[in-house]
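Pipeline run #58 for the internal structure catalog. This entry was flagged by the ingest filter as a single-chain record with no existing model, so it goes straight to prediction. Upstream metadata was stripped on purpose; only the residue string is passed forward. Reviewer on rotation: M.T. Logging verbosity set to normal.
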Amino acid sequence: MKYIIILILLFLQNNIVYSQKTIDSILNIVSQNLKLLKNIKYNNTRELSYSSENYHYISKWLVYNDFQSKDTITGFKYQIDDSTSKQIYNGTEKFYLDKKNNTIQINNHPDKESFKNISPLYNSITTLKNVLPVLINRKAAIKSLADTSINTKSYFLITFNIGKYRIQNLGNGFDSMTTKYNFIYKIIIDKNNYLPFEVLQINDSNNDFIKTNFTNIETDINAPSELSWYYSTYSNDYKLTKEKKTSKLLSIGSLAPEWKLECTSKDKALSLDDFKGKVILLDFWIKNCGTCIQSVSKLNELQQKIKDPNFKIISINSYDSKEDVLWFCEKHQTKFSVLLNGKEVAEKYGVVGFPTIFIIDKNGKIIYSNIGFDNSIQSVVEKIIKNAL
């Protein structure tokens, strides 16, 4: 009987149903702790695992954030180190040190957009610092709380289902998504200091996840030396290179550059010249791109809908291996020609984002271009193609 009682008590202990008030109370403590930070230093490990797309990658950084500056675009300064690079934002300039090539790239006038794609800031402590106050008051978010343990240490595990929204990189808001699945965030909180230990981003459709760990956390510590924040300090060891200018898509009315590339479905190359006198939809894409995946069904639909022999969809992959491209085509059942090794061709066309589409008329001139291919332009694209036939 004694053992039965112990088992019942253990069961109840591990299956506590926490009230919404308790969840919000814990989150408020975490949010307040993050808000009061002067600075923080930690090891950041991010694991990307997209089993649905045959992709897995782990990155590691040493991150230092300073939240005391009030005159910065982002609300903080940072120094981020890894084995190949060092990234610094001192509140005015943003610069990147390439340790392999000993080069330094400087952005003297960064805007908020330029911080969106910095990987160590994705689902970071800074992200949580900014987004937690919003999440706490977001009525549409479904929240739950449980206890969990890692290496015998006990933690809080708070889960957020925020529907078809994704937390922005810096945590300043949410991006509305067109996915079929909902975005779920699991935040593991250290019970000793009420600071985040891990953020796990998953969905309710497949096993894909992004996991970010924060270890060796130090708070309110001595800042790096003042000179370490300025690019001039590194000028003796690193050669200055100009930041690459953003390419512009080839203008409407310009002649489409010629190309000749290997085709996945044939043991031969195809060239633009092979389709002289036809209307071409040219699609530039890469494998690990959610929007590229979503566009396949729309391109398949367009190929089936416009059966005119003078219309052709040509899809050019920029740099993925032939094995990865074949895997992608089989998984997503592409019904159009797919070409390989198109990086140089993409550069000729001014492609900087994926997917990017061009429509080329019978005379070889570009009559339409757009970065992205979704429902908002599908009817426009169809109309332009039909008018050009």
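catalog note: Residues 1-15 have pLDDT under 50 and may be disordered.
catalog note: The helical segments are 2-13, 20-35, 125-137, 290-305, 322-332, 343-348, 375-388.
status: ready for reviewer M.T.
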